[in-house]
Structure formats: structure tokens, C-alpha cells
Design brief:
Elements (H helix, E strand, L loop, with lengths): L13 E2 L12 H4 L2 H4 L9 E2 L9 H11 L8 E4 L6 H9 L4 E6 L2 H13 L6 E5 L2 H14 L2
Parallel strand pairs: 3-4, 4-5
Antiparallel strand pairs: 1-2
């Protein structure tokens, strides 16, 4: 694994593979498609081994973002309930359609990947990052709203 960053900066379990020889066999077919997953992969995208199996490929994330953007103009807040590596969240932020974007992720290491990946795309500051289980986050918010209704 070669990267521009020191090993101390990368959380345990996070990788940026530069060459096919560095990639574990189980994820090699996904790594070979890396530029369709993140077009800017070579700029230092972070992934865990598990993220390769569930990340939304960039063209699909762009389509999802485009489709969601057709929501009524009065809808200006978006919640990505399962942020993962940030594929969808990044596209939502790049669209410029949303006043606020909240990205919720329960795994701290995965959230670190999403934040880092959003930095590569220049949109990390457009996203509110929440570490937690979305069901717990929503339950607390709903309980607060019901109590104060």
C-alpha cells in the first residue's frame, strides 16, 4: 500500500491501494473498477476492505443525486442515513441543490473514510457528519420533538 500520507494518519483497517499487487484477492475485481466507483480514486480515496462490496459506483450515485434533486424546491435538507464511504453523500453535495446535508454512519472508521473522500472532492465542509446509528439518532430527535410538541 503506497500513499502520500503517513501510516499514522490513516485509521486502522483503512486502505488506499496504489497497485494491483497490494490488493487482497477478495477485492481485486472491485479495485480494477476503482475509477468507476470513485473517479478520483487515485487522488487518495480511502476504503476499508468491506466498503468495496457496498459503495455506490459514482455514475449510479450521480443518477440518484439527480433523481432526488427533483424533490419539491421547498425541500432543502437531505439526510444520508447510511453514509458508508461517502459515494452518495459526495454527489448530493456536488449537486449544490441542498442547503444542508447530514451524513450518518455508525462505524467510526467508515465515517473517517467518508469525510476524507469528501475532502478529496472538495465538499467535506458542505456536509454535517454524524457518528451514530441512524435509528438511535432519529429516535432521539423524534423523542425531543414529541416531548416539545
Amino acid at each position: 500500500m503506497a500513499t502520500d500520507e503517513s501510516a499514522e494518519d490513516i485509521p486502522a483497517g483503512v486502505h488506499h491501494f496504489d497497485t494491483a499487487e497490494d490488493v487482497p484477492f477478495e477485492i481485486s475485481k472491485y479495485w480494477h473498477q476503482r475509477k468507476s466507483i470513485f473517479s478520483r480514486y487515485d487522488e487518495g480515496i480511502w476504503m476499508t476492505d468491506d466498503l468495496w462490496f457496498g459503495v455506490t459506483p459514482e455514475p449510479v450515485a450521480k443518477k440518484i443525486s439527480s433523481d432526488i434533486a427533483s424533490a419539491p424546491a421547498s425541500k432543502r435538507i437531505l439526510i444520508d442515513a447510511f453514509a458508508g464511504a461517502g459515494g452518495n453523500t459526495i454527489q448530493f453535495a456536488l449537486s449544490g441543490r441542498w442547503n444542508q446535508i447530514f451524513a450518518v454512519e455508525k462505524d467510526a472508521t467508515v465515517l473517517a473514510c467518508a469525510k476524507h473522500n469528501a475532502e478529496i472532492y472538495g465538499v467535506a465542509n458542505k456536509i454535517v457528519w454524524i457518528h451514530g446509528d441512524v435509528f438511535d439518532v432519529l429516535a432521539k430527535k423524534l423523542k425531543f420533538q414529541l416531548k416539545n410538541a
